[in-house]
Amino acid sequence: MAGAPAALRAALEGRPIERPLRAPLLAALAAEVEELDLREFLADAGKRSRILAGLAQSMGVDVLVLDSGSGWDAESSGFVTDWAAGYPPALAGTLSGVELRFDPARGGAPVILDLLQRVRAVVPDAVSLAVTLVGPRMLVAAGSDALGLPAATQLVLAAARAVAEAGSGVVIVREDGGAEVDDAAYAAATAPLWRSLQFFRSAGVLQVSGAADGWAGVLAGAGPFLPVFNARESPGAAAAVAGAGRPYGLALPTDVVASPVGPLATERCALLTHDRDLAGEVPVRDVAGVAAAMTI
To answer: Tell me, what DSSP letter sits at residue 165?
Structure first.
């Protein structure tokens, strides 16, 4: 079982950070390398591992994000994904008559677990592997509130444990910045998730997409996770995180211009990623330059 990158462990333990790790979001864009159909590509662990490993080695990334939000984990827990608007798919409710339970043999889980093992065998140990999971607040919304936050967190925890045991040193839990959230309830419900990732020696990342000022209290709150957000769209969250003195990560916009950090102390920035996958945003020929330009 791979552990969290040393830089992220240092950040979560309050130790100095030498530089932020680069984790470009290119898991879906990778299908364009060989002009493959995206959904067929996502279902093929062999092709995914070969192309993603090649991209990682050619670009010198620190964290290789193998899945940037395909909803594989939600499907494996009994949810339905809707691809009508493209990638990333939306959640469209739950399967009728199916128990909401993470099943590593259902949905996209077998492909992801196979993918982790394949990529771990060919990329250098210095490259950490990451997988993105649908956050519990998003699962609650997709379940028409029939699923409570604690129960939704247990689904995420089960998926997180599976990928951590398969070699994911970073687990990214993605939430929608436009969703309403009760800070105290969310912190209480997700505490077991972050503690479990600590136990499995993986770094927990909470990435809130879009305008995330409504999540400022959660992002700035205590807990062994790294908050990640788009500072350009979320000045309130940036100010809250700065006031808390927390380590943090930035989700850079796909136009390659670095997000202004505002009041944030740059020496606390531990991770640079993107606010969405580069698929459809950046030509494949330019992806190496985009990764190299990730800076603050």
So the answer is: H
Q: Which of 269, 271, 288, 287 is CA-nearest to residue 279?
A: 287
Give the contacts of 202 (CB within 8 A, at least 6 positions apart): 2, 3, 4, 160, 163, 164, 168, 169, 170, 171
- Owner of token pair 């330009």: 293
Tell me how crowded residue 24 is: count the other CB atoms within 10 A of its CB: 30
Residue 234's pLDDT is 96
Peptide bond into 224 cis (omega under 30): no
Q: What span, in angstroms and rounded, lies between the C-alpha atoms of 52 and 64?
A: 8
CA distance 203 to 131: 11
| Confidence category of residue 144, pLDDT binned at 50, 70, 90 | low
Q: For the chain, how many helices (H) and strands (E)? A: 11, 10
As a whole number of angstroms, the distance between CA 40 and CA 24 comes to: 22
Non-local (6+) Cβ contacts of 224 within 8 A are 12, 194, 195, 197, 198, 204
Q: Give residue 287's identity as a one-letter amino acid code.
A: V
What are the start-end ranges of the E strands in the chain?
A: 21-22, 63-67, 79-82, 90-94, 128-134, 170-176, 203-209, 226-229, 248-252, 269-274
Average pLDDT, the chain: 94
Domain 6-292 has CATH 3.20.20.210: yes
CB 218 within 8 A of CB 195: no
Structure tokens at 173: 């839990």
Provide, rounded to the nearest whole percent, the portion of the chain with pLDDT above 70. Answer: 98
- Tally Cβ neighbours within 10 Å of residue 83: 14
- Helix (H, G, I), strand (E, B), or coil: what is residue 29? helix
